[in-house]
Specification:
Length: 219
């Protein structure tokens, strides 16, 4: 039922967008409508991803190649806002489930949206000696309001008027399903850093993942 509803909503958005593209509207009005339609589309996608949980899609290859391909799309969004997005990515072989793409995109996109024009977002990714992928996404924005910190990873918790409040809830779900951890360090006026530890991403094929501290060893 949820899948059919999401499909119908997305199909309903298409003709509205097409009509807006040719309608005699002021540019500012057209852009406002498009933002609303994009928000609806994003909300539907987040609901579906949150409901489905784990993704079975996996991708193997060099960490640099995989993350750079995702970063290119996000960098275009950053440039449109006047934000500098840079990335330092280690050249290491990895195998990543589809859920990691959602984690990466949500954290980087949130950082870009958190900083004003002229701000900076820095991404660092490496694989440690246990085969754990360590991802850090830092911004120099205003930081997270103290009132939001305690419920940061809860569904619908957001300080953005155009946010769905599901992005970080999805991040926590996928990271915890992988047996990893996600942490946030934020100082008002000094920016925010999210750190993800994703175990087993750098292990050689056929090898049992090295357990992350607190994670039970595989049988």
């Amino acid at each position: 039922m949820a899948t059919e509803l999401a499909h119908d909503i997305k199909n309903s958005i298409v003709p509205v967008r097409l009509l807006c593209e040719v309608a005699p509207l002021e540019t500012e009005d057209r852009e406002a409508i498009f933002r609303s339609l994009d928000h609806i589309h994003e909300l539907v996608n987040d609901f579906m991803a949150f409901g489905c949980g784990r993704s079975s899609e996996r991708r193997s290859g060099a960490l640099t190649e995989i993350l750079q391909s995702w970063t290119t799309v996000l960098r275009n969004e950053a440039q449109a806002k006047g934000v500098n997005l840079s990335a330092e990515i280690a050249d290491a072989p990895v195998e990543l489930p589809g859920g990691f793409r959602i984690v990466y995109a949500n954290l980087v996109r949130n950082a870009v949206q958190a900083v004003p024009a002229g701000g900076r977002v820095q991404v660092d990714a490496r694989v440690d000696e246990r085969g754990t992928l360590v991802l850090e996404v830092a911004d120099d924005g205003p930081g997270i309001p103290p009132s939001l910190r305690e419920r940061l990873f809860e569904p619908f918790a957001t300080s953005r008027t155009d946010g769905t409040g599901l992005g970080l809830a999805l991040v926590r779900r996928y990271v915890e399903e992988a047996g990893g951890e996600v942490a946030c360090d934020s100082t008002p006026g000094a920016g925010t850093t999210f750190t993800v530890h994703w175990p087993g991403a750098g292990e050689a094929p056929g090898r049992s993942p090295t357990p992350y501290p607190g994670q039970a060893s595989p049988a």
